[in-house]
Amino acid sequence: MTRAEMDALGWDSCDIILVTGDAYIDHPSFGMALVGRLLEAQGYKVGIISQPDWTSVDPFRALGKPNLYWGITAGNMDSMVNRYTADRKIRSDDAYTPNAEPNKRPDRAVTVYAQRVREAYPGVPVIVGSIEASLRRIAHYDYWSDKVRRSVLFESKADLLIFGNAERALVDVTRRIAAGENIKNIRDLRGTAFLVPQGWLPDAEWSVHNSTRVDVPGRIDKQPNPYAMALEDPKQCALDNAAPEPEVKPVVIMSREERQAAKREQARKTVVRLPSFETVSEDPVMYAHASRVFHLESNPGNARALVQAHGDRDVWLNPPPLPLAMDEMDNVYDLPYARAPHPSYGKAHIPAWEMIRYSVNIMRGCFGGCTFCSITEHEGRIIQSRSEPSILREIELIRDTTKNFAGTITDLGGPTANMYRLACKDKKIEESCRRLSCVYPTICSNLGTDHSKLISLYRKARAIPGIKKILIGSGLRYDLAVRSPEYVKELVTHHVGGLLKIAPEHTEQGTLSKMMKPGIGAYDEFKRMFEKYSKEAGKEQYLIPY
Question: pTM of the entire structure?
Answer without folding.
Answer: 0.89
